[in-house]
Design a protein that fits this description.
Order of helices and strands: EEEEEEEHHHHH
Helix content: 40-55%
Number of domains: 2
Structural class: alpha+beta
Number of helices: 5
Largest sheet: 4 strands, antiparallel
Strand content: 5-15%
Shape: rod-shaped
Oligomer: single chain
Number of strands: 7
Distance between the termini: 32 Å
Length: 285
């Protein structure tokens, strides 16, 4: 909102007058100090009969922090007869808050594409590899495919951020059993570590997808739930970044334990993608 400070009458004394808003918003002086009418502030030279904080006619601006605030002049003077008006000369609606900038959506779309490609590429190798040898390599490829798919889902939602009617509620990650993803426990520490990383990534990707939708809806509704939902998203990004880096290390270990060059190449592909995803999530871009 833009207002005009108008001095209507003066008295034989100094005046200190500051425009304020009842919602505590900070008002910003917009006038030209070189303009005799807009100039703000006059030296009192230590006297009570001259000078002070005022202008003849100058603009101010503030952003309302609450619905329909009052504006007023907080003043003190050394004489009677001062008369100040505050006139509203402009009201504008600030642009709506967005969950992600255009650049952030572009970055999310890039990693969505990378994740989809990894899902397809590793998945195709898994189909062949598991048919030939349903061992640790098969499990690693299967989990790697699921991890890439989970990230594709997560990044794809960042691009679209649809509506969610339950936007005022938090979405908690649900740690499910490996069997719910078509995975299994082998008793091998390296393979099981990758499986657990995949389970955590799936849980937080699912919670992240829901939180994206709810944070976006909070913003659309101008609801203060947006702030804590967005903070939850930052936290989820951090968790996903950490576990993606962890999974990358597991894929590297399992790559070194296979004699099948096709499986090794697919696991290396997965290692590079999960490492890149962790870098991206840690960057906050």
């Amino acid at each position: 909102m833009t207002i005009q400070f108008e001095l209507r009458a003066i008295s034989a004394g100094s005046l200190h007058a500051w425009p304020l808003s009842t919602d505590g918003a900070t008002l910003t002086y917009l006038g030209d100090q070189n303009n005799q009418y807009e100039h703000w502030g006059y030296n009192t030279y230590g006297r009570r009969d001259k000078g002070g904080d005022f202008c003849i006619s100058c603009p101010w601006r503030f952003t309302a922090q609450a619905w329909n605030p009052w504006i007023y002049v907080n003043y003190w003077d050394s004489g009677d007869g001062w008369d100040v008006d505050l006139n509203v000369i402009g009201i504008s609606t600030p642009p709506p808050r967005r969950l992600y900038t255009a650049a952030q959506k572009d970055n999310a779309h890039l990693w969505y594409t990378i994740s989809i490609n990894a899902t397809v590429g590793i998945g195709e190798t898994a189909v062949v590899g598991c048919a030939v040898s349903p061992g640790l390599g098969c499990l690693a490829l299967t989990v790697g495919t699921g991890i890439a798919g989970g990230f594709a889902w997560y990044f794809g939602t960042k691009v679209n951020d649809p509506w969610d009617d339950w936007y005022q509620y938090p979405a908690e990650p649900v740690i499910r059993d490996a069997s719910e993803y078509g995975w299994w426990w082998t008793g091998d520490s390296d393979a099981d570590a990758l499986t657990y990383a995949g389970i955590v990534i799936q849980a937080y990707a699912e919670a992240g997808v829901t939180t994206i939708n709810r944070a976006s809806t909070c913003l659309a509704q101008n609801d203060n739930c947006a702030d804590w939902q967005i903070q939850r998203l930052h936290d989820i990004d951090g968790v996903l970044g950490w576990w993606s880096r962890y999974a990358s290390g597991d894929l590297e270990i399992l790559r070194g334990r296979t004699d099948n060059p096709d499986v090794a190449a697919a696991l290396e592909y997965g290692r590079q993608v999960t490492w890149g995803i962790s870098d991206f999530l840690f960057s906050g871009q």
